[in-house]
From TrEMBL:
<keyword id="KW-0456">Lyase</keyword>
<protein>
    <submittedName>
        <fullName>3-isopropylmalate dehydratase small subunit</fullName>
        <ecNumber>4.2.1.33</ecNumber>
    </submittedName>
</protein>
């Protein structure tokens, strides 16, 4: 969903598991879908963890625990490894997460999130561990992600870190532009450059 990014303050959903791959985020059988509707993929985010083999809800999985909610997913190290399927980013966005925090993302998945208006925030392992502790101690812990200033703050402790983001992607997120929107926004500049190049 195209939404302008600025400052996001939200409670978090903790997923303290390392090496969560894209097949766990969205199982391969959903890649055959003929739709790209966000709601469809969002409903099947972490499908095999959210539901038991008989289709009943797995009450032990965090997305089914009403204690936790919010627009921010806090995940363990090496999030989004495995297959490069963009469907994993569709599922995260479709569920309603706008930010994913981890100490390391697989590169392709990280870019897929950015392309689907989900902000991947890389933090130190120490900051991540402290954040998990804060959420465990108080599920109402607020995290503030300030994209303009590229900072993330754990409101429970007051600690902040800076995070990196490609300048082009930052501009697109802050202005709710995908790659095509960006090209259209700069259409006149592109045409002027082409005219000058031919002169």
């Amino acid at each position: 969903m195209k939404q302008k990014f600025d400052i996001i303050s939200s409670t978090c959903v903790p997923l303290p598991l390392e090496n969560v791959d894209t097949d766990q985020i969205i199982p391969a059988r959903f890649l055959k879908a003929t739709t790209r509707e966000e709601s469809f993929f969002g409903e099947n985010l972490f499908r095999d963890w959210r539901y038991n083999p008989d289709g009943s809800i797995n009450k032990d999985f965090v997305l089914n625990d009403p204690t936790y909610s919010g627009e921010i997913l806090v995940a363990g190290k090496n999030f989004g490894s495995g297959s490069s399927r963009e469907h994993a980013a569709w599922a995260i966005a479709g569920y309603g997460f706008r930010v994913v925090i981890s100490s390391f993302f697989a590169d392709i998945h990280k870019n897929n999130e950015l392309n689907n208006f989900v902000l991947p925030v890389v933090v130190s392992e120490g900051f991540l561990a402290e954040l998990f502790d804060s959420i465990k101690n108080d599920p109402k812990t607020i995290v503030e992600v300030d994209l303009p200033n590229q900072t993330i703050t754990n409101k429970a402790t007051g600690k902040s870190e800076n995070f990196e983001i490609n300048g082009y992607k930052k501009y697109c997120l802050m202005n709710a532009l995908d790659d095509i929107d960006f090209l259209l926004e700069n259409k006149e500049k592109t045409e002027a450059w082409e005219r000058n190049a031919k002169a």
